[in-house]
Design goal:
The complex is a heterodimer. By secondary structure, chain A is mainly beta. Chain A is built from no helices and eleven strands. In chain B, a hairpin with a 6-residue loop joins strand 4 and strand 5. The chains are: A mainly beta, B mainly beta. Chains A and B meet through strand 5 and strand 10 of A and strand 5, strand 9 and strand 10 of B.
Chain lengths: 114, 107
C-alpha cells in the first residue's frame, strides 16, 4: 500500500544545531507540504512543493528550508534550531484528482529544542 | 490575507447532533476541506466541498456557501469516538487550516 512516512518520530536537540526531518511518500504525488502544529495555533504551513525542483514559502517559513530533488522526498531542515521551533511537524502529500487534492498526512515528528 | 475562523471548543451529548461552523476570508478559493484529528494522531480526511450545498457521507455532512464564506460540519448520532478536533481548511493555491474545534462528547 502507498504511504507517507516521517522520520525521526521523536527528536530532542539543542539550540543552534542543524536538524533535518525526513518525509518520504510512495503515492507518487506531485504536491508535498510541511506543517507545524502548536497548541492554540492549529496547523500552520511552513513550505510546500508542487514538483521536483519546486519549493515555496508558507505562512511560517523563517528558519526552515526544504529541497525537492525527486518526487518521493521533501526533507525539512532547521538550519539553527531555536526553542520556538519546538513543535509537532506533519508532512503531507496530495494530487489533484479524486477529492481534488485531499491531503494525506504522515504520522508526525515531535521535535523538542532545549 | 487569509483568515479561517472556527470555535475553539464545543461539547455535545452522545447520540445528539452537533454543528461546527467555519467562516473564511481568503484571497482565492478552490475548495474547502474538513479533517478529523484525534489526540496524538495525524489528521484524517472527512469531506470536501467546492460547490454550494450539502454533501452527505454517513453520519457526517458538510455544507458550503461560497457567497457567505461559510461552511459547517454536521455530525449526527454522536458516538464517544467522535471526541476529537475538527479542522476546517481552505484551498487557494495551497491548503490553509483554521485552528480547529475540539469536540467533547459527554455520555
Amino acid at each position: 500500500d502507498a504511504e507517507i512516512t516521517q522520520s525521526p518520530r521523536h527528536k530532542i536537540t539543542e539550540t543552534g544545531r542543524q536538524v533535518t526531518l525526513a518525509c518520504h511518500q510512495t503515492w507518487n504525488h506531485n504536491n508535498m507540504f510541511w506543517y507545524r502544529q502548536d497548541l492554540g495555533h492549529g496547523l500552520r504551513l511552513i513550505h510546500y512543493s508542487y514538483g521536483v525542483q519546486d519549493t515555496n514559502k508558507g505562512e511560517v517559513s523563517d528558519g526552515y528550508s526544504v529541497s525537492r530533488s525527486n518526487t518521493e522526498d521533501l526533507p525539512l531542515t532547521l538550519e539553527s534550531a531555536a526553542s520556538s521551533q519546538t513543535s509537532v511537524y506533519f508532512c503531507a502529500s496530495s494530487e489533484y484528482s479524486g477529492n481534488a487534492g485531499e491531503l494525506f498526512f504522515g504520522e508526525g515528528s515531535r521535535l523538542t529544542v532545549l | 490575507g487569509q483568515n479561517i475562523d472556527q470555535p475553539t471548543e464545543m461539547t455535545a451529548t452522545e447520540g445528539a447532533i452537533v454543528q461546527i461552523n467555519c467562516t473564511y476570508q481568503t484571497s482565492g478559493f478552490n475548495g474547502l476541506f474538513w479533517y478529523q484529528q484525534h489526540a496524538g494522531e495525524a489528521p484524517t480526511f472527512l469531506s470536501y466541498n467546492v460547490l454550494d450545498g450539502l454533501e452527505e457521507k454517513g453520519r457526517f455532512s458538510s455544507f458550503l456557501s461560497r457567497s457567505k464564506g461559510y461552511s459547517y460540519l454536521l455530525l449526527k448520532e454522536l458516538q464517544m469516538k467522535d471526541s476529537a478536533s475538527y479542522l476546517c481548511a481552505v484551498r487557494d493555491d495551497k491548503i490553509i487550516f483554521g485552528k480547529g474545534t475540539r469536540l467533547h462528547i459527554l455520555p
